[in-house]
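Example 3.2
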Amino acid sequence: MSRTWPRSVALKTLAGDAGVLLALLRGQPAEGTHAERLAAFYGPQAGRYDDFRERLLHGRAELIERLAVPEGGSVIELGGGTGRNLLFFGDRLARLGSVEVVDLCRPLLERARMRTAGMENVRVVEADACSYRPRMPADAVYFSYALTMIPDWRAAIDNALAMLKPGGMLGVVDFYVSDADPPPGLVTHPRATRAFWPWWFSRDGVRPSPDHLALLRARLPEHGLWERRAPVPYLPLVRVPYYVFWGRKAGLGAAGQPCTSG
């Protein structure tokens, strides 16, 4: 029995992944609004969305660990999809005052509503990350593999900063490629890497770019940054670049003290 169980799990995983892989190969539709394209692309794979991406989307737990949110504080995830990332808060989640998961994709938000049913401090919101505003300013706002999927990503970053309290924290984890000649101290990717990954992700509406990280660093001079590579399911020799960024908005922190670098 111990020999057949891992095999059965592997077969079940492969069968479930097949639908996700097929959707990825087909790519995101070219027609319709952004919300309609997201629904058409993610709807068929919503049931397997989290399981497949658990092996692809690295750095999420590390990002959330670095969001310094006080007990009773407020958190907003923009592009939150199924709400899976909330589980990375662990025991802290129940002690937060307000948590909002914001996304445009209805099929993924349906999963988020099922996941957060009974969590009185969590609200799932169907809205655009570029224009949504909470009722009150937030202690932390973050994007998890969402910024590369937002066409007007500059507006999304500016909107996230606008909804933060002074001293609040903005976090981002996402795929990227470096500049050909990045600032000192940052990683330089080979030319093949900088060409391959934008091409690879383009059919799925994902746009890795050096510009995202450059704008984040400019907007939030007080920040922490990791640049790393992660394995890709079914491509054992391939590693995709990603970064983890956390920065503090100018102003006073929760304790009324000047902000310090992350």
